[in-house]
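User: quick one, fold this
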Amino acid sequence: MPSLKLIKFITTIALVCTGLPGCASGKPGSTNQAKAAPAPGSTSSTGTPIYAPISKASPESANAIKIERVPFELGVSSVTVERIAKQNSCQSQKGAGLLYKKGPIEVYRVECEDGQEIKARCEMRQCEIFKP
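Assistant:
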């Protein structure tokens, strides 16, 4: 009966050996080398076409976040928000764009030339910068 240490040692060797030529099946002389994929458009010995395997999408693209682009729109308090942005050292070519309006509340965004972004919330034309 093999000891527990021997079983752990054999398991470790098997895990390390996986993927190396000469030890894929544990038998001497066997290899684990992948065969070359056939060229797209070639045919097998029976004459049926062989196609290249389809690559799977990367995990990053599966979990990618879709960004919704909001069209630029002026609002009632756009000038006020632009003035607040300028007071906070934010120069912008576009100005303040309306992101959200529901009742008396409006949310604006200003994209500064230096890359920062300022958002402001206005209620009844009283605006203040906020950090979402």
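User: anything notable?
Assistant: DSSP finds three helices and four strands in the chain.
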